[in-house]
Design brief:
The structure is a homodimer of 214-residue chains. By secondary structure, chain A is α/β, with parallel strands linked by helices. Chain A has a single domain, classed as P-loop containing nucleotide triphosphate hydrolases (Rossmann fold, 3-Layer(aba) Sandwich), CATH 3.40.50.300. Chain A has a 7-stranded parallel β-sheet, sandwiched between helices. In chain A, helix 1 packs parallel to helix 4 and helix 2 crosses helix 8. The longest helix of chain A has 26 residues. The first copy, chain A, is globular. The first copy, chain A, starts with a helix and ends with a helix. At the A-B interface, helix 1 and helix 5 of A face helix 1 and helix 5 of B.
């Protein structure tokens, strides 16, 4: 019975996601659905990406959180259009939440829209919001056993950003194990090793992103 | 409409949780529902706790994961009864999942049952499973902004275990900020600072746990 309900919700969601997708395409904006567990560094990655690309691309951001406005405040300091969604308890963004805020963004002026999902390694991967691609982060401090325990997000994502690699010497995690198990789930997955704290590896990620948009 | 569905599910869940609760009480077993984001160190904390307490208490474990048996394998190495639940996609344990595996544990012989929930800082806090208390972990590597962004788990938990404090010098996180914002949500919250890697702080947590059970 619970499964039936979820199917119903997912069908309705996919219909709205397709409408969002159409609007994004008509507006000429490339859309990334950015997902991770809490604290993997999504907002920091967005900040770094904006700093690197703002001379080249017009970027907008949608911030998704259960509660609070911290992330939108951080992004608005960079003078890009940003909208905060508070889900009020829901553990993921869905297509309808996105649809409701699109009027608050200058879509036709944007080249890239980054949607920061709620911090959760599970549910966000189930809900399309109209994005071109899903991108996920994994903090090296979360350990190397995540791909096999939370497979769906790894399967659904086009890129995996391994963040906080500056912490690698202080953990027991193996990047090789993460790579191997991630690629066993999704052999097309593009993997980047970065540190949003030190800036290491950000250049490669940003270059790949540019290649998708232009 | 979505909210209505969730309410219905939660009502059914609470009824089954109360039945589990009754069975736990009759069996004389104290039950902890252990929650956190992915990779905060739940399984490591359980391992440390078993090592410290196994001379004193009979402990059993239920492991909840979307997929995989890694955690149950780790725990079974410690020669305690353990059951693995694979939710097959669901982002949290619910009372019915727990009810279905209780026949596989020697409940009457146990003093303490630790239920490791799916790694998720959101949904597990919404679903009672029949526990005496909820305990949550937060890895210091997740940053200090989590209490205000994911308030429900902090509100529902009796104890917050700040894990991986050995990484503190390598992060920008402030323990004071976490403490302040956690206590603003839940002034009764008991906070422990530990490192499952170095063993620091485990003694205080274990002593507190013993005081609850005996």
């Amino acid at each position: 019975m619970k499964v039936k309900v979820v199917t119903h919700i997912l069908e309705a969601n996919d219909r709205i996601a397709a409408e969002n997708r159409k609007l994004f395409k008509e507006s000429g904006v490339y859309v990334i659905n950015l997902m991770s567990a809490p604290g993997a560094g999504k907002t920091s990655l967005i900040e770094k990406t904006i700093r690197e690309l703002s001379g080249d691309l017009k970027i907008g951001v949608i911030e998704g959180d259960i509660a609070g406005f911290d992330d939108a405040r951080r992004i608005s300091n960079l003078n890009v259009p940003v909208v905060q969604i508070n889900t009020g308890g829901a553990c993921h963004l869905d297509a309808n939440m996105i649809s409701e805020v699109l009027g608050d963004l200058p879509l036709k002026e944007l080249d890239l829209l980054i949607i920061e999902n709620v911090g959760n390694l599970v549910c966000p991967a189930e809900f399309k919001v109209g994005e071109n691609i899903k991108v996920m982060l994994l903090s090296i401090a979360e350990g190397d056993d995540k791909p096999l325990k939370y497979p769906l997000m790894f399967e659904e994502s086009s890129a995996l950003i391994l963040n906080k690699i500056d912490l690698l010497p202080h953990t027991n995690a193996s990047i090789e194990k993460i790579r191997k198990n991630s690629l066993s789930l999704n052999r097309k997955l593009k993997i980047f090793e970065v540190s949003c704290r030190t800036g290491e590896g950000i250049g490669k990620w940003v270059k790949w992103l540019q290649s998708l948009i232009k």
